[in-house]
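Section 3.1: Structural characterization of target chains.
Under the original work plan, the team committed to producing a structural model for every single-chain target entering the pipeline before any wet-lab resources were allocated. The record below documents one such target. The sequence was received from the expression subgroup and is listed exactly as submitted; it comprises 152 residues.
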Amino acid sequence: MLCSVAGICQTQEEIIRQDILNREQAKKAAVSATLDRGIELLGDEEYEAAEEKFKEVLKKSKVVPTNLTFYFGKTSYYLGKYKQSIDWLNKYLELKGTSGRFYEECTTLLELANQSYLALRQEDQEKVAQILSSDYEVDCGPSGKVTCPVCQ
């Protein structure tokens, strides 16, 4: 009789363990489906929707899928988020090195993102230089304080 009870307990433990495994697999499958949908949206040039899917994958994943770093970097580039793109693409290269499936495309996008980011920084510097080189009549008013024309 005792053996029978122990067998039932063991079976219940196995059922619980199997249920936990099934739930984890279902979560992984859902995350994988979300990632696949994001990749699909990226391919359809729906960059904002793809970015949302990738963010969803980040929230649900315990470990960031390596390919997600590439896809997020690519999406960020097309959205004009060059600094973010650079960060994600560098992370992909850090994780995969030269053996990654997307190495060639990643290095090309990384170079383009760097060029675009530097161009934006140059434009910002020119705007600041133009503002600072302008003649301003500054009325400090009664408080003796003035608002910076560059950063407000």
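The chain has a mean pLDDT of 85.
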